[in-house]
Amino acid sequence: MEPGVIYAGGQPSEVVLSVREIPEDEQRWREEITRVTGLSIPDHRQVELSQVRYWGDPGAPYVYCRFVITDRVAEPEQLDIDDLVRAVKTVRSKKPPVPCNTERALIVAWADLQTGKVGSRGDTESLVDRVLSKLDLLDDYAKQAKCDSAYLIDVGDCVESFENVASQGFVNDLSHPEQLRVARRLFTEGAIRLARRHSKLTCVSVPSNHGRWRRGKDALGRPGDDYGIEILTAVSDAFKLNPDAFGHVDFVVPDVWQETLALDVYGTILAVTHGHQVRRPELIPSWWAGQVHGGQPAADADILLTGHFHITRIQPTGRSAHTGRAKWWIQAPTLDNGSDWWRLLKGDDSDPALMVFTVDANGWDNMRLL
């Protein structure tokens, strides 16, 4: 390589310098480029040392350094617990809304955001834009549904993590802590909107495979040692700081040794689990049937809500011994940026959506994919 400057799009993209000593960091690299070439690299351009070559007398060689100059990747907004608390405290409402007296609940399936994943549908910016647009549609749906209460249910995989497959370490655009911050802030936004409109709000989360505490692919600790559960706990702590506005909001998670919970919604039992307990979605009905023999939380459920499989499926399976009505398995669609490995393997894909429906004493109704 020879000393010189290569331009692309009217801007320096590569610089090769002949130096006696290798500059030790980016600031020194920039200073050396300016000293030798007169080029002043703007701050929004990043300078990286890409190659070093020694030339001439081995005892006192010349050193050729190649630097690559690129646009910096925008840093994601640092969303932390302080930001979350500020958002909660700015809500001025002193009283929860007056009940509609419909004895009907709005169910919001918050499924598989996998925050931090980059796919064919975009990056974190795309995810945030998608989720906020879905929440706008949810506002419109909630106005029409006129429910007394609402359930915001994190069905799992709210973050992508780094531990499930090797590719995650190279296609994620957020670190694990950043994933937690963004996922926490999005869930907070959804909870605030629902709390403003309903006289009772219950926020729910269940363990999942992407949310699980892991070392590589191996799960650590108990089923409840889950980052999705931790996000819900943080949101709960923040809401308690504003009891006037959020005294009507409850937070529910399974027992630390469980992966499933059951909710009594106006006499209809709604069970929630992520779905990673089985390898294929068609195995869910038999898994659910097995919960009866094990005396598990989903045993007496009228409705089972799952995520994990990134598809929408609504299927009757079995019959309730208590009501005589069919039991229903409801599989929620994903909100993520795309599971391209699955599309390439199976040729199948699904549209991202926020699933909503209502539940009362007679079961479920008013299903919409927003």
Q: What does this molecule look like?
A:
This protein is α/β, with parallel strands linked by helices and 370 residues long. It has nine helices and 17 strands. It has two domains: 4-71, no CATH class; 81-369, 4-Layer Sandwich (Purple Acid Phosphatase, chain A, domain 2), CATH 3.60.21. The strands form four sheets. The chain has a six-stranded mixed β-sheet, with helices on one face. Strand 8 and strand 9 form a beta hairpin. The radius of gyration is 26 Å and the shape is elongated. The mean pLDDT is 88.
Give a brief description:
This protein has 370 residues and is α/β, with parallel strands linked by helices. The chain has nine helices and 17 strands. It has two domains: 4-71, no CATH class; 81-369, Metallo-dependent phosphatases (Purple Acid Phosphatase, chain A, domain 2), CATH 3.60.21.10.
Keywords, separated by commas or semicolons:
370 residues; alpha/beta; Purple Acid Phosphatase, chain A, domain 2; six-stranded mixed β-sheet; five-stranded mixed β-sheet; 9 helices; 28% strand
Distance between the termini: 56 Å
Overall body shape: elongated
Structural class: alpha/beta
What can be said about the biggest beta sheet?
A: 6 strands, mixed
Average pLDDT reading: 88
User: What is the total tally of β strands?
Assistant: 17
Residues in helices, as a percent range: 25-40%
- Rounded to an integer in angstroms, the radius of gyration calculated over CA atoms is 26 Å
**CATH architecture tag of the largest domain:** 4-Layer Sandwich
Q: What's the number of helices? A: 9
- Write down the CATH class of the largest domain: Alpha Beta
CATH superfamily of the largest domain: Metallo-dependent phosphatases
- For this structure, the CATH topology of the largest domain is Purple Acid Phosphatase, chain A, domain 2
Number of domains: 2
